[in-house]
Write a structure and sequence with these properties.
By secondary structure, the protein is an alpha/beta fold. The protein is 23% helix and 26% strand. The strands form three sheets. A six-stranded mixed β-sheet has the order 7-8-9-10-11-12, covered by helices on one side. Strands 1-2-3-4 form a four-stranded mixed β-sheet, covered by helices on one side. A hairpin with a 2-residue loop joins strand 5 and strand 6.
């Protein structure tokens, strides 16, 4: 299973005469990359992308599977709107549907970037039986420690593995996005992180561990 980083998002709020054109070009550009996902088979791929649907601009999480292709899994609901991250100015929020999906015998919940901080949703995914929480990100390298704390907390609350990937960029408008993907187990232990020396990691996990974790503290405070 492969996780791709969060989509590139607009960084400036100022009026842009090319905004409508960009809102058309970006989904097409991502669509061209989607056509190359079969090159990763037999892997299953989880990520997010910009998409225009019914006159709305959305940030959509997806699962790609060999044989069945693209499946929408979640539309981002919590959209930041501050300097450098004007998502709420560019996208419409989703309907707040945080439904787990299944792939290769694992139940998966998606929290796209800032949604990681909606810890109540992580706990709700745990109650739905999620084995994995997947978080594609686009976050500054200087904030990595804070984000990893969020990933560990979400894993503990859900009794699920937290998997995250991040954009890497060292030049131009998106300078400072520092990578550092992770795999965290259901009790918050960091199993692996990516780095410039190890940009790709593979970790074998057992969904039984997530199922057992849900029966233990602190999850046992909220459900049985």
């Amino acid at each position: 299973m492969i996780r791709r980083a969060h989509l590139a998002r607009p960084r400036r709020r100022r009026a842009c005469p090319h905004r409508d054109r960009r809102s058309r070009v970006a989904p097409r550009a991502h669509g061209r990359w989607l056509q190359r996902l079969p090159e990763l088979a037999p892997a299953h791929v989880l990520s997010s992308r910009p998409i225009n649907r019914s006159g709305r601009r959305l940030n959509e999480g997806f699962l790609w599977q060999p044989g069945t292709g693209y499946h929408s899994t979640h539309v981002k609901y919590y959209l930041p709107n501050e300097e450098g991250v004007w998502e709420a100015s560019w996208y419409q929020r989703g309907e707040g549907d945080f439904t787990a999906v299944e792939s290769q015998g694992a139940r998966i919940g998606m929290l796209i970037c800032s949604e990681l901080w909606a810890l109540e949703q992580a706990r709700a995914y745990g109650q739905l039986g999620a084995h994995l929480l997947v978080t594609p990100r686009m976050t500054q390298g200087t904030t990595t420690d804070k984000w990893l704390v969020g990933g560990r907390a979400a894993a503990i609350l859900a009794g699920a593995f937290s998997l995250s990937s991040n954009r890497v960029s060292t030049r131009g408008a998106y300078e400072g996005f520092g990578g550092t993907g992770w795999v965290v187990d259901p009790d918050g232990e960091v199993l692996a992180v990516t780095s410039p020396q190890h940009p790709f990691i593979t970790v074998e996990i057992n969904t039984w561990q997530a199922e057992q974790a849900k029966r233990t503290y602190p999850r046992s405070l909220f459900w049985t």
